[in-house]
């Protein structure tokens, strides 16, 4: 069992009792511990470097007040900076659009897009009383369309059927038209993912985005990807004007370093966290709690 960051810092900063101020030299060892803790939590190296630089800038010169030890003061700075980097407060979905509000789900195959589409549908239906339609534009995997149909039934929302012989944009246009004519509040559009980033997939989702003009474009990413989440996030962030991120599989062992990396790379808020395979396993993402998890 690894020691948490607070314990580690207490150890390296023991020698500093009575110091009234954090200085570059008295926090050097502690920053090395912070760096190690972040790497162990699977935060990508370039992100760790930027973060450490930011913490150093904030910490140096900080007064150690009252009963705090220098170690505690530094933990405070680290925690604050991390919460800030993760986006301060929870941000929900933006559905402020002429109905139907269109939400486009993007991400690699296996990230959890279809499951998350079902989770969001259930959440919007149950907590916001929205009339929700879901559609799959994954014309390559008939099983994916079937999976969304099953998930929609479980969520108690309507499923718009799609045929693998149609083009994704045509399916999307038909779903929008249907949603308008039947007064749906929200249309959730599930898309095809590949096992790795490829140009064809990116072109397709860009075309879908242009055709749909969604109010939310959500990047769904598996927290277990750890450091690899960075490259995926960068590719999707460059291809699409993302409005938010959903980090899945946080119920697993992942320490959550991917959260910091993805946020840093895309600059977009992580809006929800997937915490289980069931449709009830979706939670609002809270930066402060995530900071505690990453720091251990
Ligand atoms: P897609 O290919 O992106 O549509 O991914 P799926 O929705 O099919 O999900 C891939 C796998 O991840 C499935 O076995 C899901 O049950 C599982 N999954 C999705 N989200 C979560 C989550 O938050 N926690 C866990 N433990 N499993 C998840």
From TrEMBL:
Record-listed GTP binding positions = 107-114, 190-194, 248-251
Q: In the UniProt entry, what is the domain comment?
A: Composed of three domains: the N-terminal N domain, which is responsible for interactions with the ribosome, the central G domain, which binds GTP, and the C-terminal M domain, which binds the RNA and the signal sequence of the RNC.
Keyword Glycosyltransferase applies: no
- Keywords of this entry: Cytoplasm, GTP-binding, Hydrolase, Nucleotide-binding, Ribonucleoprotein, RNA-binding, Signal recognition particle
**All residue ranges annotated as the SRP54-type proteins GTP-binding domain in the record:** 269-282
Q: Give the primary localization class.
A: cytoplasm
Instruction: Identify this protein by name.
Output: Signal recognition particle protein
Q: Which family does it belong to?
A: Belongs to the GTP-binding SRP family. SRP54 subfamily.
**In the record, which residues are listed under signal peptide?**
none
Write down the species: Oryzomicrobium terrae
- State its role: Involved in targeting and insertion of nascent membrane proteins into the cytoplasmic membrane. Binds to the hydrophobic signal sequence of the ribosome-nascent chain (RNC) as it emerges from the ribosomes. The SRP-RNC complex is then targeted to the cytoplasmic membrane where it interacts with the SRP receptor FtsY. Interaction with FtsY leads to the transfer of the RNC complex to the Sec translocase for insertion into the membrane, the hydrolysis of GTP by both Ffh and FtsY, and the dissociation of the SRP-FtsY complex into the individual components.
Residue range from the parent sequence:
1 to 296 of 453
- Looking at the keywords, is Metal-binding present? no
Q: Name one GO biological process term.
A: SRP-dependent cotranslational protein targeting to membrane
Q: Which domain of life is it from?
A: Bacteria
């Amino acid at each position: 069992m690894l020691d948490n960051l607070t314990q580690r810092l207490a150890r390296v900063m023991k020698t500093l009792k009575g110091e009234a101020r954090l200085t570059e030299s008295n926090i050097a060892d502690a920053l090395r511990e912070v760096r190690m803790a972040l790497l162990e939590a699977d935060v990508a190296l370039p992100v760790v470097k930027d973060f450490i630089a930011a913490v150093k800038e904030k910490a140096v010169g900080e007064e150690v007040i009252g009963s705090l030890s220098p170690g505690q003061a530094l933990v405070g700075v680290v925690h604050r900076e991390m919460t800030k980097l993760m986006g301060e407060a929870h941000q929900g979905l933006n559905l402020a659009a002429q109905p139907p509000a269109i939400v486009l789900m993007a991400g690699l195959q296996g990230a959890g897009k279809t499951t998350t589409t079902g989770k969001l549908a259930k959440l919007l239906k149950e907590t916001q009383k929205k009339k929700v339609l879901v559609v799959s534009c994954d014309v390559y995997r008939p099983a994916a369309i079937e999976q969304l149909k099953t998930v929609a039934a479980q969520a108690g929302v309507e499923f718009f059927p799609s045929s693998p012989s149609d083009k994704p944009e045509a399916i999307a246009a038909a779903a929008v038209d249907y949603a308008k004519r039947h007064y749906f509040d929200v249309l959730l559009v599930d898309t095809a993912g590949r096992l790795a980033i490829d140009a064809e997939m990116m072109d397709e989702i860009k075309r879908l985005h242009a055709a749909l003009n969604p109010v939310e474009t959500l990047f769904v990413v598996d927290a277990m990807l750890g450091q690899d989440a960075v490259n995926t996030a960068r590719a999707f962030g460059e291809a699409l004007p993302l409005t938010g991120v959903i980090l899945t599989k946080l119920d697993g062992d992942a320490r959550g370093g991917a959260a910091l990396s993805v946020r840093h790379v895309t600059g977009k808020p992580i809006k929800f966290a997937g915490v289980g395979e069931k449709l009830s396993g979706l939670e609002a993402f809270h930066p402060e709690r995530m900071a505690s998890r990453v720091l251990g």
